[in-house]
Write a structure and sequence with these properties.
The chain is mainly α. It has one domain (3-100). The protein is 66% helix and 0% strand. The protein starts with a helix and ends with a helix.
């Protein structure tokens, strides 16, 4: 059985929300590079979508987000040095907050 056949079909309402939320006109690599650090989990990738373009886009973003090296490569390509520095500070602050708990 193909992996995509193992994913449940998204409810139509979910597919509509996902298609309105994510910029599928943007390359998956660019989305992951610019916004990927905010996604600890990418739950929308658990579904299969009727729109094949949307489904492929979601799955490609998910692959990048699960691969730290690929994510860093996308960030290096699409973020300015100042944006990368800001993100590092943000992540460091989050890690310090977790250490305080």
């Amino acid at each position: 059985m193909k992996p995509e056949a193992q994913r449940p079909l998204a409810p139509e309402e979910t597919e509509l929300r996902v298609s309105e939320t994510f910029p599928v006109d943007m390359a998956p690599e660019e989305f992951a590079g610019r916004d990927g650090y905010g996604w600890m989990d990418f739950p929308v990738a658990r579904y299969r979508y009727r729109d094949e373009r949307l489904d492929a886009w979601i799955q490609q973003v998910s692959v990048i987000l699960r691969d730290p090296a690929a994510l860093r490569e996308c960030q290096a390509k699409y973020l300015t040095p100042a944006e990368r520095q800001y993100m590092q500070r943000y992540l460091q602050d989050d890690n310090e907050a977790l250490d305080d708990d």
